[in-house]
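User: I want to check something. If I give you two sequences, will you return the structure for each one separately, not as a complex?

Assistant: Yes, each is folded on its own. Here is the first sequence with its structure:
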Amino acid sequence: MRQDLFQKYDKPVPRYTSFPAVPHWDVANFTAQSWLQHLKKSFSKYSEEGISLYIHLPYCERLCTYCGCNKHITTNHAVEDPYIDAVLHEWKMYLEVLESKPLLRGIHLGGGTPTFFSAKNLERLLSGILSTAYVSADFEGSVEVHPTVTSFEQLAVLHNLGFSRLSAGVQDTDPVVQFIINRVQPNEETIRVVTDARNIGFQQINIDLVYGLPLQTFQSIQNTLKHVLELSPDRIAYYGYAHVPWKSKGQRRYSETDLPSVETKRAMYLMANEILTKNDYHAIGMDHFAKPDDPLFLARAEGRLHRNFMGYTTQNTPLMIGLGASAISDCETAYSQNYKTPKEYLAILSQKILPVEKGHILSQEDLQTKKHILNLMCYYQTCTNTIEDKEQRNIIQNRLSEMVADELLVIDNQDIKISPIGHPFVRNIAACFDPYFNKQANDTPTFSKSI
């Protein structure tokens, strides 16, 4: 490892699950009406390709302190019915806008904790949506689960409704780490859920891990990987912990002195990379590992790998509608995001108003930049020959020049290829293409650090 490079480039930059990043959206010139116009155009243009849905189920019974997701902590399950009613009402409003029955390619249930909801309510939600659409022959249903609150009955309902992919959050199996992040999860619970899912018929099992957590050690990661490899998941997401205490107040339970140094954090990634590679997992992008027969590995090999608000994915429908509090939608030329809290979301829908709070209409320059950033994040390379503005090309190359000198990438004419040394800094490199980021005040605490 080049320690000097980690010190130099460990700076706050976007994670680029979208471009522009949400803090850079032009919300002043966005309206819900403009969003719906772009939505309708996209649906008309891509109706045969189908659409996908992201449904945000925000409730959790307890707070995992490391988590930066939009969530609402409660043990009151009386919130389930009103929330399901609201999501189904929002979907009905979108159906009225689309004016014809859509072809549904996939649904992803995220959170929060989707399995906070009872099997009965999960069935009511999904049946209410699936019954109003044509379901594609290659439909993929995927769900994020917290093993300690996931039952056999819930998994059976999901599988009966076409769900085939399950992502189980594990993070770290060490009791000390679990205690400080307030996620006590015995390994037996994870084994139970994975075993149940496979017995029921789920075809793809993903395990989510996080490195760089407070009090985490090389030994705890080694033990965690040993437990995970015994389960033989098809895919492992190995996310770098994002320390953003100004955004996620739960992270104030510990201080930065409890976190591994930037050099240690990178060494934790490299150690896991070596262990997983020896066990026939292949690195995909900056934080995923997949077996050779996993669709994510095949998508990269065939040039179909994509990155969106859920991270790396094989599913790239031009139109993705987000339902639920804080959910983000993407229709290729525009983004929208719903009101973030369940209280706001429910209040707006009760007035029979689509709960869109903000969004961004992408310019032609945005769309061009988005392609370059996706190429870098998915394939570690891009070509600037599509940038017609010579001055803009020169600005980007000037921003990259220091990284070229540091051997993070090579520029051959207009082809840009990130070197293996540069892979950890792909977010920094992508940021050189981002005009919004480069206009931002450097003292604004907005993004997590890159390493």
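And separately, the second sequence with its own structure:
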Amino acid sequence: MLALLTTTACASGAVIAPFTSDGCSEFPDGPSQHKGLWLACCIHHDKAYWQGGTYKERSQADAALQQCVAAVGQPQIAKLMLAGVRAGGSPYWPTRFRWGYGWPWLRGYTALTAEERAQAQTALAEYEKVLAELAR
């Protein structure tokens, strides 16, 4: 299986980096009285941003972040966060939190191939496995 993934990754020209998250990037993970209130929303959003894809997929990921933060009781913060990710998350910024940050810079709004989606799913499964082991 690993050989198949490696061969597929080379054939598509790029290999996705292991998943990382810095929480809410340049924004607090929650208010001072509840520091991690919307952290899970940001990590979920980071998974979408790390993987990248089309402009429509980015718009959906940003809308999901807004909905998630609003659902924890922070609709005004959700609007502020949406404005921030729309302005700062372009795949054309050379930042560690840009759209598609798991891929080499300047990928843009390129749809993932089936092989790239498989790479991403495998990498996320590895990340979840490490988290589960750390929780023991």
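Because they were folded independently, the notes below concern the second chain alone. The radius of gyration is 16 Å. The first helix runs from residue 2 to 12.
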